[in-house]
UniProtKB/TrEMBL annotation:
GO terms for molecular function: pyridoxal phosphate binding; transaminase activity. It comes from Tunturiibacter empetritectus. One of its GO terms (biological process) is polysaccharide biosynthetic process. Belongs to the DegT/DnrJ/EryC1 family. Its EC number is 2.6.1.-. The active site is at residue 199. This is DegT/DnrJ/EryC1/StrS family aminotransferase. It comes from the Bacteria. InterPro entries: DegT/StrS_aminotransferase (IPR000653), PyrdxlP-dep_Trfase (IPR015424), PyrdxlP-dep_Trfase_major (IPR015421), PyrdxlP-dep_Trfase_small (IPR015422). Keywords: Aminotransferase, Pyridoxal phosphate, Transferase. The modification N6-(pyridoxal phosphate)lysine is found at residue 199. The lineage of its organism: Bacteria, Pseudomonadati, Acidobacteriota, Terriglobia, Terriglobales. It holds the Pfam family DegT_DnrJ_EryC1.
Length: 391
């Protein structure tokens, strides 16, 4: 009798941090030991050193470490003097912090819909808002470089010039991404990064960073992150405690050295997913998903994508996700509820139907396992399992 071996698909986790830690273990322990030996736990030499390394990596003249990506958005806006009476235009298709940080600095968020191909804030939709009566109080635009791909910076730069606005980047998902070769962090007046543990550059806890091309924003952000205090116990204004821990900075500086390699591995994995999906005849012909096909991520030729996430779209998303979960294949939805439909933001008076492209995306997007140490056989398993769902 023939020996028939039935191969059971292996589980594929959405993320597996232990693979990265196994490689960096000693370097990370050494860096933490140095902080313990110095007994300097908040700000201090490790933070200054990481700020310099991060500024160089982003080609930005200034970098200011802080406590989280959420705080980094608030700090960038507040340090640029965005506050009560000002409006800031952003996207409803992002993490909650993009909007809550605008509210935190006392400004009003104004939402505009996204581009259906890249899921990033649509510059034409922003232009329309700027030309409407509510556009009068707009002081800044806050595009998000979603999933690791920069928003259309050519179009936003034109809007900045025509309307004399500030451009602030929510680059939480995009360390190392570029637009026309210019790194995220050096594109706008200021940018905010998150080092939350799932990010492509990740701390071992919460951490964030502001970068800026402006010496004035740099100076103001440093004061604001330390209780509005330039001279100890003399408070010029009401800031906050958003200092970066030395241990996080030390870990981040170790990881920053590996980031170009990791981002390249992410791009390679994305290209392999694309190939495997094409080979399996699973792709739809256009940006519109169909019952039978999925839409693969679309990269603007001007963008240096870092694939923080590899996100497909399909109208059968929830069914597909359940099918993958049943077979222990990780996936995630970024984000299932657009911000204009969040309960806590209902007082902004938006309603269902206001941003149809964001609403459709929220129903259809699905992020697949993506991290530098992901193996080829695991990608094959993900695509084979999706192929069996569509059979
Ligand atoms: C687009 C975006 N903005 C802001 C944040 C907030 O960053 P953090 O979680 O570090 O506060 C995140 C990350 O969660 C994010 O993905």
């Amino acid at each position: 009798m023939a020996d028939v071996t039935i191969r059971k698909p292996q589980p594929v986790p959405m993320l597996d941090f232990s693979r990265q830690f196994a490689v960096l273990r000693q370097e990370i322990f050494d860096s933490i030991e140095a902080v313990c030996t110095s007994q300097h736990f908040i700000l201090g030499p490790q933070v200054t050193s990481f700020e310099h390394a991060a500024a160089t990596a982003c080609a930005a003249p200034h970098a200011i470490g802080c406590a989280s990506g959420t705080d980094a958005i608030w700090l960038a806006l507040a340090a640029a003097n965005v506050g009560p009476g000002d409006a800031v235009i952003t996207t409803p298709f992002s993490f909650f912090a993009t909007v809550s940080a605008i509210l935190r600095c006392g400004a009003t968020p104004l939402l505009a819909d996204i581009d259906p191909a890249t899921f990033n804030l649509s510059a034409p939709a922003v232009a329309k808002l700027l030309d409407s009566p509510v556009g009068r109080n707009v002081k800044a635009i806050l595009p998000v470089h979603l999933y690791g791909q920069c928003a259309d910076w050519d179009a936003f730069t034109a809007l900045k010039q025509n309307h004399k606005l500030l451009l602030i980047e929510d680059a939480a998902q995009a360390f190392g991404a570029t637009w026309n070769g210019v790194p995220a962090g050096a594109l706008g007046d200021a940018a905010a990064f998150s080092f939350y543990p799932t990010k492509n550059l990740s701390a071992m806890g919460d951490a964030g960073l502001v970068t800026t091309t402006s010496a004035a924003i740099d100076d103001h952000a440093r004061v604001l992150r330390a209780h509005g205090m330039r001279r100890r116990y003399y408070h010029e204004e009401i800031g906050w405690n958003s200092r970066l821990d030395s241990i996080q900075a030390a870990v981040l500086e170790v990881k920053l050295r590996y980031l170009p390699k990791w981002n390249q591995q992410r791009r390679d994995h994305a290209a392999r997913y694309d190939q495997l999906f094409h080979k399996a005849n699973l792709t739809a012909d256009s940006t519109a998903s169909t019952d039978k096909g999925i839409v693969l991520p679309i990269t603007d030729p001007r963008a240096g994508h870092v694939f923080h996430q590899y996100v497909i779209r399909t109208p059968r998303r929830d069914e597909l996700r359940q099918y993958l979960t049943d077979r222990k294949i990780g996936s995630e939805i970024y984000y299932p509820v657009p911000l204009h439909l969040q309960t806590s933001l209902s007082y902004l008076s938006y309603k269902q139907g206001d941003f149809p492209i964001s609403e459709a995306a929220a129903d259809e997007v699905l992020a697949l396992p993506m991290y530098p140490e992901l193996r080829e056989d695991e990608q094959q398993t993900v695509v084979d399992t999706i192929a069996s769902f569509y059979q």
